[in-house]
Amino acid sequence: MDYKEFFNDVSIWVIACNERAEKFGLNSEKFWAWVADTIGRLCDKYDNHPLAVAQSQMLWDWLKS
């Protein structure tokens, strides 16, 4: 796994997530559908590597807090 590429993708995702949160609102179905879809695609891109899964879970938990 290319860790540099992975964490770059995470950084890009966080920026996009902030933009979607502003656009749709944190409590909107549209926002959470986007989160679920894109976090799933991020895990898939890295073949569900344990780090990708753990990082995705952390991001999900961070958004829910």
Structural descriptors:
single chain; 65 residues; mainly alpha; 3 helices; 83% helix; elongated
Structure description:
The protein is mostly helical. The chain is built from 3 helices and no strands. The chain has helices spanning 3-24, 29-45, 50-64.
Give the strand tally. Answer: 0
Based on secondary structure, the structural category is mainly alpha
Estimate nothing, just give the exact number of structural domains.
Answer: 1
**Judging from the principal axes of the Cα atoms, what is the shape?**
elongated
Rg, nearest Å? 12 Å
Biggest beta sheet attributes: none
Give the terminus-to-terminus CA distance: 29 Å
Percent in helix: over 70%
Tell me the series of helices and strands, N- to C-terminal.
HHH
Fraction of residues in β-strands: under 5%
The low-confidence runs, each spanning 5 or more residues with pLDDT under 50, are: none
The helix tally amounts to: 3
**Overall pLDDT level:** 97
Topology overview:
Layout: H1 3-24, H2 29-45, H3 50-64
Helix pairs in contact: 1-2, 2-3
Quick structural gist:
This protein is mainly α and 65 residues long.
